[in-house]
Write a structure and sequence with these properties.
Layout (H helix, E strand, L loop, with lengths): L4 E10 L2 E11 L6 E9 L8 H15 L4 E4 L6 H9 L17
Parallel strand pairs: 3-4
Antiparallel strand pairs: 1-2, 2-3
Length: 105
């Protein structure tokens, strides 16, 4: 984790039942403070119910209060439903992430 970065966890509940989690890294002591939405997961049976949107809205509002100016995330290239959700929340592609398998498998 970068110097000055802090990992935050956001959670969503429905009647004391955990239905969503998000892991977010805030990096503030850089010229353009940013967050990385490391992961966001909503219970499969609750998707489309607005919980993911509420979590993203809350994360963005908290980030703005702390001076965060940008948000980044990485998503699997075939995760089209998530891509549409992220695009509706202002995300757009700015890079390509590539991987090399070092195990030779």
């Amino acid at each position: 984790m970068a110097s000055g970065a802090s990992l935050r966890i956001a959670s969503a509940y429905d009647d004391n039942r955990l239905i969503g989690l998000a892991y977010v890294t805030f990096t503030k002591n850089v010229p353009a403070p940013f967050l990385i939405l490391e992961d966001i997961v909503v219970d499969r049976n609750q998707r489309g119910s607005g919980y993911g949107q509420q979590m993203v809205d809350w994360i963005f509002n908290e980030a703005l209060k702390e001076g965060i100016k940008r948000a980044f995330l990485e998503s699997g290239k075939e995760n089209h439903d998530a891509h549409h959700f992220f695009e509706r929340n202002g995300f757009h592609q700015v890079s390509i992430v590539m991987m090399a398998d070092l195990t030779g498998a």
